[in-house]
Amino acid sequence: MKEKVIAALDVETEEQALSLTKKLKDYVGAFKVGLQLYNNVGPGIVKKIADQGCKVFLDLKFHDIPNTVAGAAEAVVGLGAFMFNVHAAGGKKMMQEAVKAAQRKAAQLGIAKPLIIGVTVLTSMTEAELQQEIGIQKTLPEQVAALALSAKEAGLDGVVASAQEIPWIREVCGTDFLIVTPGIRPTWAASDDQARIVTPQQALDLGADYLVIGRPLTAAADPREAAQRLWG
Ligand code: C5P
């Protein structure tokens, strides 16, 4: 169970991040470094966390032309992340180039290729916004499923999705495809700004492979104690 939990380090400073990794490393499988922490302290944070013997999911959601994303993917492999992500909306060619570059760099370094995860439709986006602002004709489930399939066909290892989206993705991508799920709240935790939440056990029952959990762990008075109560 522990290996499936990725604690989101949504903090500003290296001190805050490393204090959390020390407290939580025996209770979670990996730590997520996102745009806030990365842009505040720089790429060195990935190695510092890895040096504590922890895995890092680098959540920077690359979305650019294939050549640029390939270069970024190569750099991420060098940093030592075990997982990173790209926007599936960047296109199949972009995703394929990211996979190729990551494979190449990992082989060069003699390490395993990081898992590459696609972002489909951001869970903050409504169907109305998707259709009216972005001009997509499909419904939200259709668009999520189409992008997930495109990610799988491009050779990605999985997608990030809300628990609610898991059945749509499993239907088109099958079980041999990772689903990383945020929006997790144990029954005792506040929902904060997450609108559609499930408990850790519910997320697993729905078929999630990894659970991204932030504030219930990182904002707890005692993060270790909170981590031990995730499944209660
Ligand atoms: O604190 P909380 O558990 O809500 O944190 C969830 C983490 O997952 C945050 O880092 C957030 O950015 C990320 N995330 C999310 N919903 C998505 C994609 C990522 O909450 N659809």
Please describe the topology of this protein.
Elements: E1 5-8, H1 14-24, E2 30-34, H2 35-41, H3 44-51, E3 55-62, H4 66-79, E4 83-87, H5 92-109, E5 115-119, H6 127-132, H7 140-153, E6 158-160, H8 166-173, E7 178-181, H9 200-206, E8 210-213, H10 215-218, H11 223-228
Helix pairs in contact: 4-5, 7-8
Cytidine-5'-monophosphate binds next to strand 8.
Structure notes:
β3, α4 and β4 form a beta-alpha-beta unit. Strands 1-2-3-4-5-6-7-8 form an 8-stranded parallel barrel, surrounded by 6 helices. By secondary structure, it is of the alpha/beta class. The protein is built from 11 helices and 8 strands. α4 packs parallel to α5 (92-109) and α7 crosses α8 (166-173). The model has no long low-confidence stretch (mean pLDDT 97). It has a single domain, classed as TIM Barrel (Alpha-Beta Barrel). The two termini are 12 Å apart. It has helices spanning 14-24, 35-41, 44-51, 66-79, 92-109, 127-132, 140-153, 166-173, 200-206, 215-218, 223-228; strands at 5-8, 30-34, 55-62, 83-87, 115-119, 158-160, 178-181, 210-213. The longest helix is centred in the middle third of the chain and has 18 residues, at 92-109. Residues 8, 10, 34, 122-123, 160, 182-183, 192, 194, 212-215 line the site of cytidine-5'-monophosphate.
Keywords:
alpha/beta; single chain; 232 residues; TIM Barrel; eight-stranded parallel β-barrel; 8 strands
